[in-house]
Design brief:
The protein contains 7 helices and 15 strands. By secondary structure, it is of the alpha/beta class. Strand 6 and strand 7 form a beta hairpin. The longest helix is centred in the middle third of the chain and has 18 residues.
């Protein structure tokens, strides 16, 4: 589900944009849209503060009573908010300022499906590519923990338990076998199994040679005998797709 905020002080514009969003959703196979309408930026910030509202996309007019759209976007960025911002306004004169607050598009009214739908295509694609992925793991003390896949650096077999090393020097012991753990992770192509003791997230490999790999956490893992060639191909294929386009070498 994508949360979309429309902020414009004119009801007709709110109606028009909301209808185009509904028409776009009806024609696409993407996730659900949860649309909220705001007549000014103060209402958005109130929702953020009181309800922890976190829109994925804000469709923002520039000329509004109180804070302008540019001022609103700048305040959001100063708060650390990284939501997608699309400006919809009657003038081109603020385009440079718009991209200074990392807006992804600047549409001049009247906005039509012809100009709006390609922007939505890009927004949805970006959101899908950056959507966090999670798995549920049963810890050694019988708790269920949700872990983001990108946070997993590597997994190591430690006697009868498995230890998952996470970012920020965190980790968790699991009550499951290495085989079962790999069954959970193998459908995600970033994970590769090294012998019987390790599963590695290739996102975190900094260096790879014929004997060992270095992870961005500083951990060195020595490779099982005969595993380098296959691992090198998996690593290049993961990053480049077609490994034949690149020169294979140890680095």
């Amino acid at each position: 589900m994508y949360q979309i905020a429309i902020c414009d002080d004119e009801k007709l514009e709110l109606d028009n944009v909301e209808q185009m969003l509904k028409d776009y959703h009806a024609k696409s196979a993407g996730g659900e849209f949860l649309i909220r309408r705001f007549a000014n930026s103060e209402d958005i910030f109130l929702q953020i503060k009181t309800e922890n509202y976190q829109p994925d996309l804000i469709l923002l007019d520039i000329y509004m009573p109180g804070s302008s759209g540019i001022e609103t976007a700048r305040k959001l960025r100063d708060m650390g908010n990284t939501c997608k911002i699309v400006f919809m306004t009657t003038s081109q004169e603020h385009a440079l300022e718009a991209f200074g607050v990392d807006a992804i598009s600047y549409l001049v009214k009247p906005v039509s499906e012809k100009t709006f739908f390609p922007v939505l295509d890009k927004v949805i694609k970006d959101l899908e590519n950056n959507q966090p992925q999670y798995i549920l793991l049963q810890t050694a003390n019988n708790c269920i923990r949700r872990v983001e896949l990108n946070d997993i650096i590597y997994c190591e077999a430690q006697r009868k338990k498995q230890y998952v090393y996470l970012k920020e020097n965190q980790g968790v012991y699991l009550r499951m076998t290495m085989t079962k753990l790999f069954e959970l992770l193998c459908s995600y192509n970033k994970f590769v199994k090294l012998g019987v003791s390790y599963i590695v997230n290739m996102e975190h490999i900094e260096r790879l040679d014929t004997q060992m790999l270095l992870l961005d956490s500083g951990k060195e893992i020595f490779l099982p005998r005969g595993s380098y060639k296959e691992l090198r191909e998996r690593y290049f294929d993961y990053y480049f797709g077609d490994k034949t386009l690149f020169t294979m070498r140890a680095f």
